[in-house]
Amino acid sequence: MANAKKPFCLLAFFCLLLQLFSIFHIGNGELEMNYYRESCPKAEEIIRQQVETLYYKHGNTAVSWLRNLFHDCVVKSCDASLLLETAKGVESEQKSTRSFGMRNFKYVKIIKDAVEKECPNTVSCADIVALSARDGIVMLKGPKIEMIKTGRRDSRGSYLGDVETLIPNHNDSLSSVLSTFDSIGIDVEATVALLGAHSVGRVHCVNLVHRLYPTIDPTLDPSYALYLKNRCPTPTPSPDAVLYSRNDRETPMVVDNMYYKNIMAHKGLLVIDDELASDPRTAPFVAKMAADNGYFHEQFSRGVGLLSETNPLTGDQGEIRKDCRYVN
Predict the structure, then answer these.
(1) Exposed/middle/buried for 315, CB within 10 Å: 0-12, 13-18, 19+?
(2) Chain Cα centroid distance, residue 177
(3) Among 131, 146, 153, 203, which residue carries the largest CB count within 10 Å?
(4) What are the E-state strand segments in the chain?
(5) Strand pairing class (202-204; 244-246)
(6) What is the mean pLDDT of residues 79-83?
(7) How far, in whole angstroms, is CA 166 from its chain's centroid?
(8) Surface-to-core class of residue 82, CB atoms within 10 Å of its CB (0-12 exposed, 13-18 middle, 19+ buried)
(9) Binding site members for substrate
(10) Which position among 25, 58, 71, 297 bears the catalytic label?
(11) How far apart are CA 121 and CA 108, in angstroms?
(12) What is the 8-class DSSP label of residue 91?
């Protein structure tokens, strides 16, 4: 009789373990595909529609969404800390010099308000950052990235004091940039692909003039250097002046492999662009991406997926902000 009870006892024990695992799993949580399928089934479609509408009104918003993902996720966590404004004891990360040139934060509220109208207190600002980047890439004729997981939660604070350390400077060395990406689990090949986002980027003359004055950087293509000097006619440009140069003059609003073709021809804006094309750790990937846009898109998609999953807050961590600009 005692032996007959053993299978039942074992079954009851494993059932209890399964229940405890479920509780633990829910409490800690994890990202998953279509996280809002029950709580807010239209969430991703609403975000996509808003990104599209904003793009046709303000085309550069799509570029902003892509840059937001990088600046948010590299600093500690993909938790929308970037979106917090200075208030309630919070010092905004947007005050950092690393955030120079970032814009269109005000339009995030339009996306958030549309989602809140459908599903109050449900969809995180962190997921809006990730999904708007995904959909912005499509508007920029980049790859359609299917594998963006959701379920992130929002931070209850910012990390202004860490931004200068964690986000590379415009003119940091390639080794420094590779180290930054490696620290968050992104390999060299994916890093080279993510730097392809510079295809739709622009750089203020403040970050260029050291390559032009008092003498021209010999690694620059001479004709390209003259173009840059025309764009940046003074060695001491005002940060407030509208003095920019684009990385890609051929397809400036398209996420494509033109960036790699340019840097192989010594027509990159930043020192890291030249290093990327010449360093033996990265040059083979640059050459392959320059030759094959499909390969670039494949690796870019993989890189965005890895970036978007950097140390997210999930489960009962953090909060779901009502307004992305302020903690609740």
Answers:
(1) middle
(2) 15
(3) 131
(4) 202-204, 244-246
(5) antiparallel
(6) 98
(7) 14
(8) buried
(9) 168
(10) 71
(11) 16
(12) P
Structure token digits, residue 83: 């979106």
Decide: 159 and 76 in contact? Cβ < 8 Å. Answer: yes
pLDDT of residue 24: 38
DSSP character at residue 32: B
Q: Tell me which residue has tokens 């919070």.
A: 90
Q: How far apart are CA 48 and CA 75, in angstroms?
A: 25
pLDDT band per the 50, 70, 90 thresholds, residue 247: confident
Mean pLDDT of 158-171: 91
The dihedrals phi and psi of 83, each to the nearest 5 degrees, come to -80, -15
- Quickly state the pLDDT bin for 3 (edges 50, 70, 90): low
Average pLDDT of every residue of the chain: 91
- Residue 230 confidence (pLDDT) above 90: yes
Catalytic: 71? yes
**Structure token digits, residue 115:** 């989602």
Would you say the C-alpha torsion 4, 5, 11, 13 has a positive or negative sign?
negative
pLDDT 10s digits, 262-303: 999 999 999 999 999 999 999 999 999 999 999 999 999 999
Helical (H) or strand (E) element with 58: none
The number of CA neighbours under 13 Å toward the Cβ of 205 is: 21
- What the block records as the tokens of 146 is 């299917």
Annotated binding site for Ca(2+): 72, 75, 79, 81, 93, 248, 251, 256
- Known binding residues for heme b are 198
